[in-house]
Amino acid sequence: MKFTLKKIIHFPVIKIVLAITICLGILIGIQNLITKPIIYYFINSKPIGDTIINYISVIVLLLSYFYFFKIYDKRKIKELTKINLTTELLGGFLFGFLVLSLVILILYLLGYYTVNSISDFSYLLAPFSFLIIAALIEEVIFRLIIYRIVEKWLGTYLALLIISIIFTVPHLLNDNVTLLSVLLLLTFGFAHSIMYTYTKSLWLPFAFHLGWNFAQPFYGSNLSGTEEGHIINANFDGPILLIGSDFGIEDSILSIILLLIVCILFLKLSIRNNKIEKKKLQLSSAVKLNI
């Protein structure tokens, strides 16, 4: 048996592992060896320093991805296109934020959500920049690298199943995970992936992810099982099925239902606009054997 190096490194699984390792390696290396030492040397305020570091990290990660695949695949990186960039970023953020805002409105009308006070908006500094880089890292890894490559290899439907599971597994390590949290995570992974299928770019799933995540601490909820600070200090008092568990408002059955509607909407749009990738798993697409 004889494998050529080119066939091996372009095998989808190898490509995924290399892309994640190199992109994250560059990000972590530059953070720890360059940006953190320099920023903390000149800036005494940790919140301001962290904010600058996080925004620099956004640029580093995007450039790492761009040049890795530009060199590796020798192609244009259309998934980072500037076309519809502003529309998808602003629209996606508002879309994600408004979905959970609708849940909050329903809970308020039912008497299950009350506002106690409003904090200052310092949350919009370092914590918000952390939400940005955290959402970007997840979307680059799970959507641009894993899902995009698997979708072209195995087709959209199988890729959606695989990425929903892969996205869920690491989040099971979060605090306060429940069965509804698992259902939410599976649905979340599906929703963002089908958004990518429809737009073929990073911006909509990333912005929706950011808007969704920002809405939770904004309204006083935990975020994926953790306390991330709040802008609105509020009480959630009602059935856990409706208000969500300690994982956060996102595992409310209301949030899950709305997210399922989003999934169906983008799945229909993808089918209608011929965005669904067909299965391409053949011997010729895998590593061939030269015997």
Structure, described:
- The chain has helices at about 5-10, 10-40, 45-75, 85-110, 125-155, 155-170, 180-200, 205-220, 240-245, 255-270; strands spanning about 115-120, 230-235.
- The chain has about 290 residues and is mainly alpha-helical.
- It has a domain at about 80-270.
- Strands 1-2 form a two-stranded antiparallel sheet.
- The longest helix has about 30 residues, at about 10-40.
Summary, kept brief:
By secondary structure, the protein is mostly helical. The chain is built from 10 helices and 2 strands; from the N terminus they run ααααβααααβαα. The chain has a two-stranded antiparallel ribbon.
Query: What Rg is obtained from the alpha carbons, in whole angstroms?
Result: 20 Å
Mean residue pLDDT: 91
Q: By helix and strand content, what is the structural category?
A: mainly alpha
Low-confidence stretches: 283-291
Quantity of strands, as a count? 2
Helix-strand sequence: HHHHEHHHHEHH
Q: What shape does the CA trace take?
A: globular
Order of strands, main sheet, comes to 1-2
Transmembrane segments: 12-32, 52-69, 89-115, 121-142, 154-173, 179-195, 202-219, 252-271
Keywords: Hydrolase, Membrane, Metalloprotease, Protease, Transmembrane, Transmembrane helix
Domain CAAX prenyl protease 2/Lysostaphin resistance protein A-like: 124-214
Protein name: CPBP family intramembrane metalloprotease
SSE blueprint:
Layout: H1 5-9, H2 12-42, H3 46-73, H4 85-110, E1 113-118, H5 126-154, H6 156-171, H7 179-199, H8 203-218, E2 232-236, H9 240-243, H10 253-272
Antiparallel strand pairs: 1-2
Helix pairs in contact: 2-3, 2-5, 3-5, 4-8, 5-6, 5-7, 5-8, 6-7, 7-8, 7-10
